[in-house]
Amino acid sequence: MELIKGYEIELFEPPCLPGSPRWGAKVHIDADLADLLPYLNGALKKRFYDPNSQTIVFKLDGHGIAVRPREIRLGNLADKEEGEKVAREVIDFINEIAGKKDTITPDYTRKEPPKAIEIFKLLPKTNCRKCGQLTCMAFATALAKGEVDIDDCPELHEENYKENRERLEALFMG
Ligand code: SF4
């Protein structure tokens, strides 16, 4: 039996700069995932987990995913259709983990994401807003929370930031 049976997707543009090409989404679910989070933490290899705020953050096909007991956040979406597709994939994954819970050893330990200030040091610091955030610091904060993705900063694709990008990716490899 599926744990999450129904859900509603709330799509939003990055709040600071309407018109940004990347969308985010909040998925409201009809189940309480609080007890499942340690099992997700036990099953996922690359993830960050905070038992105090009951949040687990991981990536799925380049999308930042943050799961909390009653909602799932999705980042780095091209459009509404992609939001719906990614939401379905994440929900299928969570339902799959719930279905095989008995075979997974739950992990209750905290696994911290990089601090926003560590991320900020590696950003271009131009505050160009191309990522949809007002400042590089705002982007760093959102990245630490799993609400955006490294790819959302187009400047990091420039050749002169190649090393910074590699160092940022290494930070998130954990
Ligand atoms: S796109 Fe990159 S450089 Fe520009 S504001 Fe966002 S984080 Fe900073």
Instruction: Specify the CATH class of the largest domain.
Output: Alpha Beta
> Structurally, how many domains make up the residues?
2
Main beta sheet: 6 strands, antiparallel
Find the CATH topology of the largest domain.
TATA-Binding Protein
* Shape summary: globular
What is the rounded Rg? 16 Å
- Largest sheet, order of strands side by side? 1-2-6-5-4-3
Overall mean pLDDT stands at: 89
Low-confidence segments, ≥5 residues, pLDDT <50? none
Characterise the protein shown here.
There is one protein chain. This protein is an alpha+beta fold. It has 2 domains: 7-103, 2-Layer Sandwich (TATA-Binding Protein), CATH 3.30.310; 116-173, 3-methyladenine DNA Glycosylase II, Chain A, domain 3 (Orthogonal Bundle), CATH 1.10.15.40. The protein has helices spanning 37-43, 80-99, 116-121, 136-144, 162-173; strands at residues 7-12, 23-29, 48-50, 55-60, 63-67, 71-77. The chain has a 6-stranded antiparallel sheet with strand order 1-2-6-5-4-3, covered by helices on one side. A hairpin with a 2-residue loop joins strand 4 (55-60) and strand 5. The mean pLDDT is 89. The chain binds iron/sulfur cluster (SF4). Iron/sulfur cluster binds next to helix 4.
